[in-house]
């Protein structure tokens, strides 16, 4: 409480400095809504952006808030079901009337909430990857992560141009993310005249992947594209090594979040490439190092791409509010016009469908360690 | 051939875990008539008891295992007193829903205590592999199968060759008569819950190094354990074992030879089929006994 | 007659609330009404006929997917699409019911649970038809005489009207020969058979009725949320439906409605507790089961008993007797 009071005072002081006599308005915080899974299976990833959103709000307020007005986060649990996510969003809109909100990083929840967003008529940022979310013509929704198809296309391009693989196998988790990604990858490969030798699925709760991995091997796959979530991704990378699979593996972002990495040993990452949303590399220096260092100091774990997306999103939102104020429509129009805004993870440009990110990074662990290094960055139109 | 051996071992290891979970479930059901929908959360707690002693407290292996099992025994006792006793006179459905409710509480309490990050328990035989005809088999998987077999043997001895076990079975048959015969029914029922919690604890500790400990792992295990129980026969120990192994093998072999997307239909399809054709399962009770 | 009054009172309370509460509460009321339709249906199977079903949300899902597929892929009007969606679900229940309903008690519970899991697997993998785990979005809303049934308040009125019709129908069936046959089967199958009741037929009828109501709830869900995905109809939801019935008071239409409302609102109310709210929710549910063994409606009945000892509420004054 002491901290908050001091912050409010700081913010107020800053407001006096910045906006002259507008001290009265400075008292009043701007409430920003966020629905985040804090219970259930999705809370593993939810926690990541719960952290960075809190951190971003503090940073914005330390820097004087929005023209002196502090930002206050109202966070509701989106749980693990679509209807909980919708209820959480409607509750937020109802009770705090935020000019802006963050949705979860789960596409089906995004899809379910979309009609309510249109009804509430406030701009929102979301991080579900499914392309379908952006196909609804809902002009209030802005995506702060690469689409799943972008990531899948990048995987295909990396695999064909860099790894020179010709007999790809696909392994995917049976949910919206995995099915969607695997579908796009298969189509892209087909267009490129490359035959997928095997495409295998596994359930979200599966713990044994030997059947799938062995089938990929016996089909003669010379590369395996993996669409996974964090814990299952780590488990299947371990099992692939235990089974003695030799071909390179190209895995999606989630396998490289710290929660997954801590489960792996360096040997598990041998011959594994990651196509990740953004590479959180403290070695890059500058703002990235500052962000990564402060995150680690504050939360005790390494920062990750999911959290970074929301941190960037919050900073972008703050920028918009400073420019055009908190009127939802004006803010929406401003966001729609964002071109090349330099966040920490990406340069954000929103296209006509509200997709803001056009590039992904390819990473690989340095031999014998778990320290990731950038291999290349893939930019697609 | 190497692949088949590989699949069979992995399926057996997976099946052993399901079998242990199913046994915990069956013991409770035979002795108390409770269909325990929190059975999966019991296993989850077993794994996390291991996380608490081995990872968080950093105890050495044997002490950590003992500590974790002691915690589970305590939990079994607590469950008996707080959940079972108040509900014991309720109808089947109320008890089912009651165990579901307490399962929600257990899962979320674990989330509050341990957070959402998955943990990895280290196996005593970490990293050791056996090579059999080209298949690579982690020693831990073999240890799980052997330990499960051993445990089942001990359990059989307990239930059939000791006064305690025979008294437990007497209570399971007819609690009223058992009481009239001078058996301490409440203590025996409490012991049943402790035993179930211990079995779940062992299952949890064994699967910790194979899978990762994650607070949401309970329900999926319970679903497979239910399928195992039905296939093997409700209320039958050998049935729970056969059912567990069948479900584990079906999962792995089905993914390999049928379809990885539809593999779980095999276990649940078999479960429904068994219910329709042979509801007493492979080794089951006569269904008129309960219900 | 009194249960008709209780039903009317509940529905009027919903109607009155629709004028005063916030958009968020309206949404929850809508979810409660949709759940109530499903639970009133489940009451046929469990409350009247004593069939423990943990597969109820598969039938809700069949109805919802039926409507979603026919409207988005075939371009049908949702009104028209609802007819085959509901009828198809009823047929599916009949086809499944004949073999399944020979099972009793927890056997049936686990069989229907397996059915629900299987439904989820098929819905998640039959991508061409169901959209897979991505589900089906942009399901059109309803229009009635040129007015769109859109917005939480309007939808609530519509939902309450549907619930009124189906609730009255349920009460009528309860009082009918069929309803009495169901309860006879529940209380003593052998005795029922001896009085000439076709036990299997009556059980299947109860099961089909429950599936029809579930399908209507599914259709309401689809046109309310405009989006369906396999997750919306998983086993957890099926268990919730049964919990609603038990908490409200099995065997009574009012109990089904009260239970549906309570378990829809309770977790939302508990959100104020912060991180541990679901842990607390579980404990509260356990407490209700322990302290109100006959549900909330049962409590009301018990409380009234001293005044009218012989009152046989048409809702079915059954203390938690099990088949």
Automatic annotation (TrEMBL), chain A:
PROSITE patterns: TAT
Residues annotated as signal peptide: 1-25
GO BP terms: amino acid transport
Domain Leucine-binding protein: from-to ranges: 29-367
Keyword flag rRNA processing: no
Alphabetically ordered keywords of this record: Amino-acid transport, Signal, Transport
Transmembrane segments annotated in the record for this chain: none
Recorded superkingdom: Bacteria
Pfam families named among the record's database cross-references: Peripla_BP_6
Family named by the database record: Belongs to the leucine-binding protein family.
Protein name (Swiss-Prot/TrEMBL): Amino acid ABC transporter substrate-binding protein
Annotated source species: Methylobacterium oryzihabitans
Lineage: Bacteria, Pseudomonadati, Pseudomonadota, Alphaproteobacteria, Hyphomicrobiales
TrEMBL record, chain B:
InterPro entries attached to this UniProt entry: ABC_transp_permease (IPR001851), BCAA_transport_permease (IPR052157)
Alphabetical UniProt keywords: Amino-acid transport, Cell membrane, Membrane, Transmembrane, Transmembrane helix, Transport
Subcellular location, principal: membrane
Subcellular location(s) of the protein: Cell membrane
GO cellular component: plasma membrane
GO biological process terms, semicolon-separated: amino acid transport
Residues spanning the membrane: 12-35, 42-59, 65-85, 92-117, 137-159, 188-213, 225-253, 265-283
Name listed for the protein in its UniProt record: Branched-chain amino acid ABC transporter permease
Species of origin: Methylobacterium oryzihabitans
Automatic annotation (TrEMBL), chain C:
Record localization: Cell membrane
Transmembrane segments: 28-51, 82-101, 108-127, 155-173, 204-227, 239-265, 277-300
Membrane protein topology class: Multi-pass membrane protein
Keywords of this entry: Cell membrane, Membrane, Transmembrane, Transmembrane helix
Residue ranges of coiled coil: none
Major subcellular location class: membrane
Pfam families: BPD_transp_2
Cellular component annotations (GO), alphabetically ordered: plasma membrane
Record GO terms (molecular function): branched-chain amino acid transmembrane transporter activity
Name this polypeptide is given: Branched-chain amino acid ABC transporter permease
Native source species: Methylobacterium oryzihabitans
Taxonomic path: Bacteria, Pseudomonadati, Pseudomonadota, Alphaproteobacteria, Hyphomicrobiales
């Amino acid at each position: 409480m002491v901290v908050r009071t001091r912050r409010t005072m700081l913010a107020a002081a800053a407001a006096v400095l910045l906006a002259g006599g507008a001290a009265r308005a400075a008292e009043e915080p701007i409430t920003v809504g966020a629905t985040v899974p804090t219970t259930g299976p999705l809370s593993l990833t939810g926690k990541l952006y719960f952290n960075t959103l809190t951190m971003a709000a503090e940073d914005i307020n330390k820097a004087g808030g929005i023209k002196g007005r502090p930002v206050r986060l109202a966070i509701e649990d989106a749980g693990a079901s679509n209807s909980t996510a919708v209820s959480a969003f409607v509750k937020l809109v109802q009770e705090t009337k935020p000019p802006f909100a963050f949705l979860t990083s789960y596409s089906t929840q995004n899809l379910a909430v979309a009609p309510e967003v249109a009804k509430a008529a406030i701009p929102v940022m979301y991080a579900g990857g499914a392309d379908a979310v952006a196909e609804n013509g809902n002009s209030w929704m802005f995506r702060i992560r690469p689409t799943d198809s972008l990531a899948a296309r990048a995987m295909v391009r990396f695999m064909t141009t860099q790894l020179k693989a010709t007999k790809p196998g696909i392994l995917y988790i049976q949910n919206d993310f995995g099915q969607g990604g695997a579908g796009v990858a298969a189509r892209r490969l087909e267009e490129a005249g490359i035959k997928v030798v095997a495409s295998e699925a596994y359930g979200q709760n599966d713990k044994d992947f030997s059947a799938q991995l062995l089938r990929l091997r016996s089909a003669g796959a010379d590369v395996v594209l993996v669409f996974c979530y964090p814990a299952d991704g780590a488990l299947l990378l371990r099992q692939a090594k235990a089974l003695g699979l030799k071909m390179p593996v190209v895995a999606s972002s989630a396998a490289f979040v710290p929660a997954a990495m801590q489960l792996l040993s360096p040997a598990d990452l041998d011959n594994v490439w990651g196509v990740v949303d953004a590479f959180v590399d403290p070695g890059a220096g500058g703002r990235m190092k500052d962000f990564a260092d402060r995150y680690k100091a504050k939360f005790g774990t390494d920062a990750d791409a999911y959290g970074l997306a929301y941190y960037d999103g919050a900073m972008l939102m703050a920028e918009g509010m400073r420019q055009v104020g908190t009127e939802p429509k004006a803010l929406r129009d401003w966001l729609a016009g964002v071109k090349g805004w330099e966040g920490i993870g990406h340069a954000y440009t929103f296209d006509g469908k509200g997709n803001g990110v056009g590039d992904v990074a390819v990473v690989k662990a340095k031999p014998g360690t778990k320290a990731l290094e950038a291999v290349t960055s893939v930019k697609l139109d | 051939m190497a692949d088949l051996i590989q699949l069979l071992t992995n399926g057996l290891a997976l099946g052993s875990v399901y079998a242990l979970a199913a046994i915990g479930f069956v013991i409770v059901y035979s002795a108390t008539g409770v269909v325990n929908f929190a059975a999966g959360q019991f296993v989850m707690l077993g794994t996390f008891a291991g996380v608490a002693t081995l990872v968080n407290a950093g105890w050495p292996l044997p002490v950590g295992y003992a500590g974790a099992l002691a915690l589970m025994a305590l939990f079994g006792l607590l469950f008996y007193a707080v959940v079972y006793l108040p509900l014991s006179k309720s109808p089947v459905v109320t008890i089912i829903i009651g165990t579901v409710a307490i399962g929600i509480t257990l899962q979320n309490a674990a989330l509050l205590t341990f957070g959402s990050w998955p943990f990895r328990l280290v196996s005593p035989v970490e990293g050791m592999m056996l090579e059999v005809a080209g298949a690579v088999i982690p020693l831990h998987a073999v240890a799980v199968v052997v330990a499960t077999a051993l445990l089942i043997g001990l359990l059989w001895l307990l239930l059939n060759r000791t006064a305690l076990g025979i008294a437990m079975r007497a209570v399971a048959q007819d609690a009223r008569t058992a009481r009239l015969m001078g058996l301490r029914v409440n203590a025996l029922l409490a012991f049943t819950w402790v035993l179930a919690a211990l079995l779940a604890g062992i299952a949890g500790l064994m699967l910790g190094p194979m899978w990762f400990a994650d607070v949401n792992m309970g329900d999926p295990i319970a679903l497979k354990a239910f399928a195992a129980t039905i296939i093997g026969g409700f209320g039958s120990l050998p049935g729970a074992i056969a059912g567990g192994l069948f479900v584990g093998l079906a999962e792995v072999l089905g993914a390999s030879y049928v379809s990885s997307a539809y593999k779980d239909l095999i276990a649940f399809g078999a479960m429904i089929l068994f219910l329709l054709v042979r509801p007493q399962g492979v080794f089951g009770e006569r269904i008129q006994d309960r219900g | 007659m009194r249960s008709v009054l209780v039903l009317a009172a509940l529905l009027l309370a919903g109607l009155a609330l629709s004028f005063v509460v916030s958009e968020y509460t309206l949404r929850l009321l809508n979810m409660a009404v949709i759940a109530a339709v499903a639970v009133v249906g489940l009451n046929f199977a469990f409350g009247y006929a004593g069939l423990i079903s943990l597969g109820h949300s598969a039938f809700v899902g069949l109805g919802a997917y039926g409507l979603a597929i026919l409207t988005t892929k075939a371009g049908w009007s949702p009104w028209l699409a609802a007819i085959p969606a509901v009828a198809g679900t009823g047929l599916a229940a009949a086809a499944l019911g004949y073999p399944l309903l020979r099972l009793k008690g927890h056997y049936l519970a686990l069989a229907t649970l397996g059915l629900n899991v299987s439904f989820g697997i098929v819905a998640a993998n039959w991508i061409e038809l169901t959209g897979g785990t991505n589900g089906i979005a942009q399901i059109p809303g309803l229009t009635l005489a040129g007015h769109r049934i859109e917005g939480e308040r309007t939808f609530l009125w519509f939902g309450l009207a549907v619930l009124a019709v189906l609730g009255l129908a349920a009460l009528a069936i309860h009082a009918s020969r069929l309803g009495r046959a169901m309860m006879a089967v529940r209380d003593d199958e052998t005795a029922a058979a001896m009085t000439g009741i076709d036990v299997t037929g009556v059980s299947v009828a109860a099961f089909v009725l429950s599936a029809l109501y579930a399908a209507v709830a599914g259709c309401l869900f689809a046109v309310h949320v405009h989006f369906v995905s396999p997750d919306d109809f998983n086993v957890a939801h099926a268990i919730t439906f049964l919990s609603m019935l038990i908490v409200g008071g099995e065997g009574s239409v009012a109990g089904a409605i009260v239970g549906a409302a309570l378990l829809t609102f309770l977790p939302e109310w508990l959100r104020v507790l912060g991180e541990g709210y679901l842990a607390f929710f579980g404990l509260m549910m356990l407490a209700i089961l322990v302290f109100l063994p006959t549900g909330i409606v049962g409590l009301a009945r018990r409380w009234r008993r001293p005044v009218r000892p012989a009152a046989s509420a048409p809702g079915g004054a059954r203390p938690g007797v099990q088949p």
